[in-house]
Amino acid sequence: MLGIGDFKANSCGGQTRRSFLQTAAALPMALGAGNQAWAAGKAPKAKSVIVLWLWGGPSHIDMFDPKPEAPSDYRGPFGTIPTRTPGMHFTELLPKTAKRSNMFSVVRSMQSSNGGHPGAGTVGLTGYEERPTVHPNFGSIVAKHRGHADALPPFFYLGHGIPRDLPRRIAGYGGGTLGKAHDPFLVQCSEKGEANIPTLKLLEGLTPNRIQDRKNLLGQLDAAERQLENAGIDDWKRTHQSAYGLLADPKARAAFDLMQEKRKTRDTYGQTTFGQSCLMARRLVETGVPYVQVNWSEYVETFTPNGDWGWDTHIFNFELLQDRHCPIFDRAYAALLDDLNERGLLKDTLVVAMGEF
Description:
Low-confidence stretches: 1-14, 20-39, 223-229
Structural class: alpha/beta
Shape: globular
Number of domains: 3
Strand order of the largest sheet: 8-7-6-9-3-10
Order of helices and strands: EEHEEEHHHEEEHHHHHHHEHE
Number of helices: 12
Number of strands: 10
Distance between the termini: 26 Å
């Protein structure tokens, strides 16, 4: 029996990804506070979650779990370096991350029950296999129970777009059985730190008075909406209420303005879409947003029509990890940890970097 807090599992060997995540979320608090804290019923420390979704499946043996003594046809070509954690080594591709290993834990025991990107992605984002019933994303669950942070939506997707295999979006990216009202609010971030918010494009050119007029009109339609009993209308209204809130609240929109940051800070994260998205994630968490997912790429494959360099690198794995992927990740991840820590946010922000397998 494995038990932490109110969570119980029959055995370690029989753990599911969902049960593992429940345990992992409780573990830092259990280790830091001890049994007395649990007995006293203290509230969990985490107020926000930042998920760095490395879509495509990063090569663990070329990053966080090198096998230096394995046969050459099994291990990668990269050397290993020590971390700040005694006995733990990373590959030479992650020097900044290695120096900050005291700020996070590495899980090397995870296994995937699905070898396909879409199916494994669904498990990673929901904790469930892809079935006819699509379960909600972890962020959607948080959005339902935590609600909005002032005018800002509670669940954001940052980066290129919603993760997809070539033909379709990944099942479980959003609200699922909770409804589209709990889908993530998408903000596309460029390597220059410019934010593109697709939902707001529908409202471009509206003055504050016209925005209020449209909100009043929606209010007048409430009675008819209830009679229709159409969940789709309710989902549409909630989505646009979020957009109205952003347009009407300058403070909320300021969270997306990375030009308010010092140039040195922006450069530290790296002038890349992933780096600037990580910086925006910090700004959103700082304003009280409870769940932010930074998507490395929209497409799983490295090379697809209109692709954006996912982690499914195939025969180009070594070159891409050495020359592009790992330098970008290493720089942005280290900057995010440092930034959160310096601002006192790391103590109550759970940062998870993972792929689907």
